[in-house]
UniProtKB/TrEMBL annotation:
Transmembrane segments: 12-34, 130-152
Domain Histidine kinase: 219-422
Record organism: Fibrella forsythiae
Protein name per Swiss-Prot or TrEMBL: histidine kinase
Example GO molecular function: kinase activity
Keywords from the UniProt entry: Kinase, Membrane, Phosphoprotein, Transferase, Transmembrane, Transmembrane helix
Domain of life: Bacteria
Leading EC class: transferase
Length: 422
């Protein structure tokens, strides 16, 4: 959820709660005031009744009391009469046969020496209508005020946050590999202006570090490969010398193997650095299924030497977007891993579909956690040919170019699966 929508959602919930509480409080206050007015008028009628009884020493219906319903009932005077009390009651209207709400004041008054129970009632129908009209008006105007305030808040927040969204869109389009600096506007709002200044400084520093690292990796790749190639060439010449003893030949073989290992390490680490820095930008559609078949054909002599059978289940081709060089490196590492960790007389099986590509191979049981094989310099077994970077390169390529790689081992079958991320 966007920040602006989240803020508006919280504001709307808070406003609704305040609105309901205010409406309830307003209704109760209005009802209290109206009831207080009705009860005050009933007390005035009570005093008029008492004055009438004191003057005439009797009670009879009088036009003076036509507005109110007065019921006088004689009662036995055995105990002290209770004090006056107000209550709500309903009286049937004899004209339209409907119950009408009344407010009733009940008190006891002696009339000609006999205690009588007196109930003075005043109709609340007009009061209720007034209360309904006030409530409806309040709901209408407060609802309009709430909607208007919410609309204004949304428009105002959208305008206030527009510089932030402009900055966010510019950052999304920013490319570290570009030579152009990050260009951000200078908004009038102080906080956004300071944010843009900080982002410009960060982008400049990141661009500088990126180009420095890129230059280092390119220089290291060029400068280190030359002396390593020279060392290998000289060592090969020494190996061919006839005057070497068996001990010297053993030492030279060790030096040659170590130099080759250093060269592979150098190539692997530089490749990882280039992938992490997104230096491969020529992305094209690649048919990984067809490329995998080609890699296996290229390794035909090795497969024959190790007597490894290759089979393929029919299925759709798995196509992805990858730089061609990285696609070749990805498949080469997978095939080399399947051959290196296989056993003589084993097999390799390829399964392909539109959504994934599987490479299965026989081999010895696994002694480490499958997920740890994708870490750098982690390898299964003590093979001197492996430097422990093959599957790390595979994982880095997949993570960078939105692919997913998984490894499973069950009953002597090793399965590496490539799939697209949803």
């Amino acid at each position: 959820m966007k920040l602006l929508n989240k803020a508006n959602y919280i504001y709307l919930l808070f406003s609704l709660v305040i609105y309901l509480l205010s409406a309830l409080a307003f209704y109760q206050v209005t009802r209290f005031l109206i009831y207080d007015e009705v009860e005050s008028r009933l007390r005035v009628e009570k005093r008029d009744f008492e004055a009438y009884v004191r003057t005439h020493h009797d009670w009879s219906s009088s036009p003076y009391f036509v507005e109110n319903k007065i019921v006088v009932t004689p009662v036995s005077q055995r105990t002290q009469p209770p004090p006056e009390a107000f209550s709500d009651t309903l009286i049937l209207n004899r004209y339209d046969n409907e119950l009408i709400p009344f407010r009733q004041l009940t008190f006891y008054e002696p009339v000609d020496g006999v205690m009588h129970r007196v109930a003075i009632r005043k109709s609340l129908i007009q009061t209720y209508r007034l209360l309904e009209a006030i409530t409806a008006t309040m709901v209408l105007f407060l609802g309009m005020l709430l909607l208007g305030t919410f609309w204004f808040q949304s428009r105002l927040s959208g305008r206030l946050w527009q510089p932030f969204y402009d900055t966010l869109a510019t950052i999304k389009r920013f490319d570290l590999s570009s030579t152009l600096p990050l260009q951000l506007p200078q908004p009038a709002i102080t906080e956004f202006s300071e944010l843009n200044d900080v982002l410009r400084k960060m982008a400049d520093k990141m661009q500088h570090d990126y180009h420095s690292l890129k230059e280092f990796t390119e220089n290291a790749s060029h400068e280190m490969q030359t002396p390593l190639a020279l060392i290998n060439a000289k060592v090969e010449q020494l190996i061919q010398t006839e005057q070497l003893t068996a001990t010297q030949t053993h030492w030279i073989d060790s030096i040659y193997e170590a130099s080759r290992r250093i060269a592979r390490l150098n190539q692997g680490l530089l490749l990882l650095a280039k992938i992490e820095n997104h230096q491969f930008i020529d992305v094209h559609p690649v048919n990984l299924s067809a490329e995998l078949r080609q890699r296996l054909l290229d390794m035909d002599e090795v497969l024959l030497h190790k007597q490894i059978r290759v089979s393929e289940e029919p299925g759709a081709d798995f196509q992805v977007l990858l730089p061609p060089f990285l696609a070749e490196s990805l498949l080469s590492n997978l095939v080399s891993n399947a051959i290196r960790h296989n056993h003589p007389g084993g097999f390799i099986q390829v399964r392909s579909s539109a959504s994934q590509l599987q490479l299965c191979n026989s081999g010895p049981s696994l002694h480490t956690a499958p997920e740890s094989l994708f870490q750098r310099f982690r390898k299964e077994g003590n093979s001197h040919e492996s430097v422990g970077l093959g599957l790390a390169i595979v994982r880095q390529i997949c993570d960078t170019y939105h692919l997913m790689v998984t490894y499973q081992y069950a009953e002597g079958l090793h399965t590496l699966t490539l799939a697209g991320r949803e």
